[in-house]
C-alpha cells in the first residue's frame, strides 16, 4: 500500500493569523472561504502536502510529538532564522555548532515547534538516495 501525504494539520486558536505566519515563512499562498479551516499551499488545487490550520477551543499544552524540519532553498539557515523571528517566531533552542552544523528550534506564534537546518548549499551535499524497505 502507498499513501499520498495530503496535508499537515495544525490545531490552533486563530487559523488565519497562524496561516499568515506560515505563508510568510514558507512562501506559499493562503486559501480560505467561509469554512473556519485555512490552507497554506503553493497553489490550489494542490497535490500536497499543504499546511491546514483548524481552529480548536483548547490551547497547546505540551511539546509537539511531530514537528517540521525546514531548510532554506535560498539564503542561509541563519538568515532564515532571523526572518522567522521577525515574522513572529521565538527561538526555543540554539543547536548551532562552531563548525557550522546544527539547527535552531523555534516556535510559531501559537507555540508549535519547528526546526531550521542548514540548506543543501550550506551543507555541500548531494540529495540522498531513496529506497523502499522490503524491496
UniProtKB/TrEMBL annotation:
<dbReference type="Pfam" id="PF18029">
    <property type="entry name" value="Glyoxalase_6"/>
</dbReference>
<protein>
    <submittedName>
        <fullName>VOC family protein</fullName>
    </submittedName>
</protein>
<dbReference type="InterPro" id="IPR029068">
    <property type="entry name" value="Glyas_Bleomycin-R_OHBP_Dase"/>
</dbReference>
<feature type="domain" description="VOC">
    <location>
        <begin position="4"/>
        <end position="119"/>
    </location>
</feature>
<dbReference type="InterPro" id="IPR041581">
    <property type="entry name" value="Glyoxalase_6"/>
</dbReference>
<dbReference type="InterPro" id="IPR037523">
    <property type="entry name" value="VOC_core"/>
</dbReference>
